[in-house]
Amino acid sequence: MLLNIDLPPAAPPPSASPDPPASPDPPAAPRPEDGGAPPAERPSSGSGRPPLAGLPVLRLIRPLAALALLAMILGRMVAPATVGLAVGIERTARAVEIAGAAASQLFALGAIVAAMALIGAVVRSRSPYVLRIAAIVGGSFVILVVLHATVQRVPDLSAALIGVSAAVLALGSAWEALRVPFMRPVAAALGLVGASALVRLAGVFLAVWANERGSKSLAAAAGSVATAAFAIDALAVLVAAVALGADRAARPQAPPEAGQPRPAPRLVTPLSLASFVPALLATRAALAGAAEDASLLEALLRRALDRLLTRPAPAVAPSVQLFAAALAVVVAALALIAPPRLSALGGALALLLVARSAPEVPLSALSLLIAALCVALAARDDRGFWAAVLATERERPQGELPGAGKADLAGAPQVDAGDDTR
C-alpha cells in the first residue's frame, strides 16, 4: 500500500564472509514535503493514464498537412487554372490534374487514419465530457461522409452538416486551448476559422433560399452575411500569421526570476512580416493577370487564386480577397517550414488554413477536424505534450535555437503548470 511506511530493520553485525548481495530495494522516493519531486514512474493520483500526446500520430500531423497543402495547390488551384489557359498545354494540364487527384487520395487515406487515432486519444484524455462526445459524434460523421465521397458525390445536406460539425468542434477545441498561454495564437486562429465557417454556411443557406423565392431582401442579407464571414476569415489569416513567430518571441532565454512577469508574445515578428512579401507579390501579379496583355504566369496566378475565393461573393474589393487567399497559402507553407515549438501545432495551423474557405468540402472538413483534435489534445494532455516538446527540442541541432538548453526546457512546463487549473 502506498500509505503504509515500513521502517527499515536494524543493521546486522558485520561478518567476515559477507552474504551474497540480495536484490536491493528501490530507493525511497523523496516526499513532497521534503522538497523532492515525485517519482516519474508513479502516475498522479486518480489518473493512471499514460501520456497521450506523445503518441506517434502527432508526428504524422506535419507531413499530413504538407500533403493537404500540396493537394489543395495542385488539385484545387493549379489544375482548374491550366484548363484552357493556352494552346498546347493539354498534356500538362492533364498531368497536374492526375497529380492533384493522387495527392488528394493519399491525404484522404492518411487523414482518416489520423482522425480516428486522434479521436481515441481525445476520448482518453482529460478533456471535458462535452468535447469528448462532440469528438466522437462529429468526428465519426465527418469520417463517414469522407468515405462516402470516395465512391460518389456527397449530397448538399451532408456537405453542409460536415461543415457545421467540423466548425463546432473547432470552436470547442479553441475555447479549451485558450487557457494555455503558448497556444493562444493557434487557438484564436482555429476559433476564428470555425466561426467564419458557420457564418459562411449561413450565408450559403440564405443565398439558396433567396434564389428559390426570388427575394431581393434575402439576397441582400446573404451578401451581408458573406461579407461578415470574409471579415472573420481574413482576421483568422492575420492571427495565423502572428502565430508563426509568437511562440519564439515569447520564449525566454532563461526562467524569469521570482516576482517578474513572463514576457508577452509580440504581435509583429520577422517571420510574420516575411509572410506578407510573397502574398503582396502574388496579389499584384494576380491583379495584372486580368488584363488582356497579361503574361502566362500572371494569368495562371489569377485563375488559381480565384479558386480560393468564397461564394457568395462578399462586398469587398477583389484585391483584398486575392490578398487574403494568397496570404493563407503563404502562412500555411511557412507553418510547415518553420513550425512552432511542437511541429504538430505547425501542422494544425496549416490544416486549418487549408480548410478555411471551404468547410463543406469533405477533405476540407476533415482537415479542420484534425486541426481541432490536435489542438484539443495539446490543451489537456500536458504530460505527454511536453514529453513530445522535449523530444522535438532534443532532435534539433544545438545551434538552431538560441539558448535552447536546460534553462529553456525547464521553463517550458512552468508556463503550462501555472495556468492549468484542474
TrEMBL record:
Stretch list, region Disordered: 1-50, 397-422
Domain of life of the source: Bacteria
Bilayer-crossing regions: 64-89, 101-123, 130-151, 157-175, 187-209, 221-246, 322-354, 361-379
Keywords annotated in UniProt: Membrane, Transmembrane, Transmembrane helix
Biased composition annotated in UniProt, kind: Pro residues: 9-30
Annotated protein name in UniProt: Uncharacterized protein
